[in-house]
Design goal:
373 residues; alpha/beta; Aspartate Aminotransferase, domain 2; Aspartate Aminotransferase, domain 1; 2 domains; seven-stranded mixed sheet; 36% helix; globular; binds pyridoxal-5'-phosphate
Amino acid sequence: MGRTHYICCLSISMKKSSMKKHNFGAGPSILPQEVFEQSAQACLEYNGIGLSLLEISHRSKEFEAILDETLTLTRELLQIPDNYKVLLMQGGANMQFAMVPYNLLNENETASYLDTGVWAAKAEEEARLYGKTHIVASSKPDAYRYIPKTFEVPKDSVYLHVTSNNTIYGTEFFEDKSYDVPVVADMSSDIFSRPVDVSRYGLIYAGAQKNLGSAGITMVIIREDLIGRSARAKSKMWDYGIYAKNNSLYNTPPVFAIYTCLLTLRWLKKLGGLTAMEKRNKAKAELLYAEIDRNPLFKGHAVAEDRSRMNINFVPVHPEDEAAFLEFVKPYHIHGIKGYRTVGGFRASCYNALPIESVQVLVQAMQDFEKTK
Ligand SMILES: *Cc1c(COP(=O)(O)O)cnc(C)c1O
């Protein structure tokens, strides 16, 4: 009885809501519209069972089916080899900064880090609590405008940690390179944006709130032989082995966040998987970079060869245009293009779910702004 009434009210209030904005926010960020609608529906009543998804047991057959399909679709879309486990946990990428060395690195051993931005530097800082670290290269002196490509990884490093997409400065690497040691990658802001050769990595982790689902869930893809590599006694909630043994159901997982991931993964598959997604993302990025390069009022931050498709950073040629342009785009329903607090300028995040129409609107606004001069 009551449930149908609520659902009815929800759809009415959705219709009444103001026009949806073009959301270029860096995270939590845009998800496919159908993910918003289906997850809202599931909060009211899940799958006709007379209960909300928020009030059922994480050991119910409904949630078990959600978890199974989430893991299966993840493996299918990323073509994950059989000797890798997919784990779902909480704490975000920041918790992985600590969990990776805690699980992989012994106190007297060394882990290597490639410093390509704020997140990479934070990861290295956490690792120092658990072992020794070595920075193989850093682009910090050049405001993280590029990704260092020539560096030596000491052979006795337990792993090399990289950040595949530098969310704050807008650099990204598109090649899955192998090194003599296992590669650990923070893919928080570009996972599922292109096909990835998982076999080139020892461990991949990603907070969900950029390309995958709502905040509150973190995905870890780990090669089985690395689970529990470090000898230290481990707290259960910090032990990859516990998650692997219990299929990520050792304790109550974030049920709703996992469901939003599942809905996004279904959407990805329906659209043609990661090859199709990469094509879409390339088209969006090329459109916006072309305007940044053409328009005399703006310039890009990153060097051309390392430009991110996910986070497109640009600055005004005349500093006084920064506030003016942010004001100017308001009537275009553009949201979230203000640059990171320590960087300034503009950042247009173009995650998977952002439609190309939103990029077209931003390009139009940039052209209209030019005409006001
Ligand atoms: C957003 C982001 C983080 C931080 O993620 P949390 O989930 O907030 O801990 C770390 N690394 C990268 C690359 C990010 O984009």
